[in-house]
DNA sequence: TAGCTCGGACCCTCAAATTG
DNA sequence: AATTTGAGGGTCCGAGCTAA
């Protein structure tokens, strides 16, 4: 197995070096590092207000720490040679929650991946059958729905590209690993990118007023020629408010150590997996709101009829990801001779496997591998099986976090906690205690603030503290792993719970509230109260 | 000429503004 | 409260560039 990403020759039919698929779904995630790719976007300062997103992203990428995802209680095999030794140097590495303010942070290397791929290899979903939508603007006459013959079908895009595709600005898909990463042999780093939370409180200026539709179309047409008070007539009939300067709110984007929770929001469910790819979460959401007839879903269903068999199978597997269905698909004619389809299917199965809920998916994936002459993988661990399970675990973790917090405030030792041995640990622990005492909140918020200030002072745009924190958390877990193992060997029931991970994935399903145990809500609320108000929103 | 880069077109989401 | 608007924040196409 090699970790170095490959470039892909153009115009290659779907034939990938298949051996490397064996690395898919190895339940340990590892990352390859130090591979500089020509595909990386250069760091660019774009001053333009309107089209900053792309360059912003790239810039953000540049400065991001390489995140090491952790799958809790993941499999046993530690892939050698790709672990900590290869990690980027990040300043303090002792696995404690120490302030990461070393200047080295700025030099943190970023992993770039060789990542360009022939776009033609992928079948674009045929969307020609989709009904075009027309918006009735006040400046328009009542709609005359006559789509131009030359109208291009809508470009299909995934909700979340994987980090590799995102960096390369290339087409991604919903599978994890995605097709492109499979081809480029970057399966172990194929993770869904995280979306920034949208800023709130941005004033938008008045919208153009809704016109009353009169019976006389001429009257409508004439009255709809907007002459804004500014005297500027925009070309599309809109007012010029759109060009009003929008106040920038402090730092580049809000930063959330924990997801912001508004008081009116439905309770969240904390997933238990330490690093479940967002993609997986999304699928669960889809499953759970199957009876939720939002337009998006309908559109998806509609268009899936028009899609290629390949795509169709993927869509259906999202709505029902049973291994039998995968098996059936594998047997079906459409997929029989098509390597690409099988790869897609494998990608999908592997993606579902990451949920670690259905061991039979593993066998399905093995079947496909066998079919594709790919070396089989060893069976990963499968853990939680139900939503209830997840809720219970989440409750446990929240309880642990809250208990730990309150105990620390009272300067009481946690009797269940692992005794840290090194003096270094203890000194940090002491300092953490002090911070808790002073601020009344979790030390990480102080660190976060300091981190942001440091980054700001050094003109470093990376404000992704959570990735850093996550990494450290991982380090700590690594350190504690032997202790936990020892405990389990000695038949001791481990009472130790890690303080809730700052980057714990969160699921907010639309119609699952009733399934959330009251206890979880309770601890969740307590937990939220630990977050000082200034950290609930963006930092200054 | 194949592969890479990256500007910007295109797309979706969702908070603000507006309407009922 | 429900609906509409339109900007934020994203995806990824494809023209132009570069190296072999
Ligand atoms: Zn991808
Ligand atoms: Zn990928």
Automatic annotation (TrEMBL):
Regions of compositional bias (Basic and acidic residues) in chain numbering: 42-52, 295-313, 405-436
UniProt signal peptide: none
Domain Zn(2)-C6 fungal-type: 161-190
Keyword Nuclease: no
Extent of Basic residues compositional bias: 196-211
A Gene Ontology molecular function term of the record: DNA-binding transcription factor activity, RNA polymerase II-specific
Residue ranges, annotated region (Disordered): 1-101, 194-238, 283-333, 402-441
InterPro entries linked to this entry: ERT1_acuK_gluconeogen_tf, Zn2Cys6_DnaBD
Coiled coil stretches, renumbered: none
Regions of compositional bias (Low complexity) in chain numbering: 283-294, 314-332
Listed Polar residues bias regions: 17-41, 75-85, 215-238
UniProt cross-references to PROSITE patterns, sorted A to Z: ZN2_CY6_FUNGAL_2
The organism's place on the tree of life at top rank: Eukaryota
Keywords, comma-separated and alphabetical: Metal-binding, Nucleus
Name by which UniProt lists this protein: 7191_t:CDS:1
């Amino acid at each position: 197995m090699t970790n170095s990403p490959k470039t892909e020759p153009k115009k290659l039919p779907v034939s990938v070096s298949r051996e490397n698929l064996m690395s898919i779904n190895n339940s340990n995630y590892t990352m390859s590092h130090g591979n500089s790719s020509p595909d990386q976007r250069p760091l660019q300062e774009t001053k333009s207000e309107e089209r900053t997103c792309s360059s912003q992203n790239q810039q953000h990428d540049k400065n991001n720490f390489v995140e090491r995802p952790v799958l809790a209680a993941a499999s046993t095999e530690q892939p050698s040679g790709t672990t900590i030794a290869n990690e980027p140097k990040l300043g303090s590495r002792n696995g404690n929650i120490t302030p990461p303010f070393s200047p080295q942070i700025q030099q943190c290397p970023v992993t770039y991946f060789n990542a360009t791929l022939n776009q033609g290899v992928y079948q674009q979903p045929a969307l020609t059958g989709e009904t075009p939508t027309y918006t009735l603007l006040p400046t328009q006459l009542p709609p005359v729905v006559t789509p131009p013959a030359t109208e291009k079908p809508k470009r299909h895009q995934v909700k979340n590209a994987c980090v590799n595709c995102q960096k390369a600005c290339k087409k991604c898909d919903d599978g994890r690993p995605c097709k492109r990463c499979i081809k480029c042999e970057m399966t172990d780093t194929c993770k869904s990118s995280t979306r920034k939370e949208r800023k709130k409180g941005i004033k938008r200026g008045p919208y153009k007023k809704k016109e009353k539709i009169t019976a006389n179309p001429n009257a409508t047409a004439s009255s709809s020629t907007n002459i804004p008070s500014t005297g500027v007539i925009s070309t599309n009939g809109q007012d010029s408010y759109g060009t009003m300067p929008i106040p920038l709110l402090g730092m580049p984007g809000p930063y959330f150590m924990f997801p912001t929770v508004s008081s009116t929001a439905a309770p969240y469910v904390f997933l238990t997996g330490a690093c479940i790819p967002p993609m997986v979460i999304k699928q669960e959401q889809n499953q759970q709101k199957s009876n939720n007839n939002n337009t998006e879903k309908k559109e998806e269903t509609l268009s899936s009829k028009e899609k290629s068999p390949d795509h169709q199978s993927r869509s259906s597997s999202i709505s029902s990801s049973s291994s039998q269905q995968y098996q059936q698909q594998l047997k079906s004619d459409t997929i029989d001779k098509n390597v690409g389809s099988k790869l897609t299917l494998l990608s999908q199965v592997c993606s579902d496997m990451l949920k670690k809920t259905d061991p039979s998916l593993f066998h399905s994936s093995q079947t496909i591998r066998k079919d594709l002459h790919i070396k089989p993988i060893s069976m990963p661990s499968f853990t939680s099986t139900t939503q209830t399970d997840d809720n219970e675990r989440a409750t446990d973790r929240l309880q642990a976090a809250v208990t730990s917090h309150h105990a620390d405030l009272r300067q009481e030792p946690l009797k269940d906690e692992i005794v840290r041995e090194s003096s270094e640990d203890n000194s940090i622990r002491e300092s953490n205690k002090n911070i808790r005492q002073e601020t009344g909140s979790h030390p990480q918020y102080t660190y976060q603030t300091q981190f942001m200030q440091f980054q700001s002072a050094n003109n470093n745009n990376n404000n992704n503290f959570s990735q850093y924190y996550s990494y450290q958390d991982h380090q700590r877990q690594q350190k504690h792993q032997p202790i936990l193992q020892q405990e389990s060997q000695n038949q001791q029931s481990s009472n130790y719970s890690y303080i809730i991970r700052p980057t714990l994935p969160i699921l907010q399903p639309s119609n699952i509230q009733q399934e959330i145990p009251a206890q979880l809500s309770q601890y969740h609320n307590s937990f939220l109260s630990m977050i000082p108000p200034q950290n609930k929103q963006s930092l200054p």
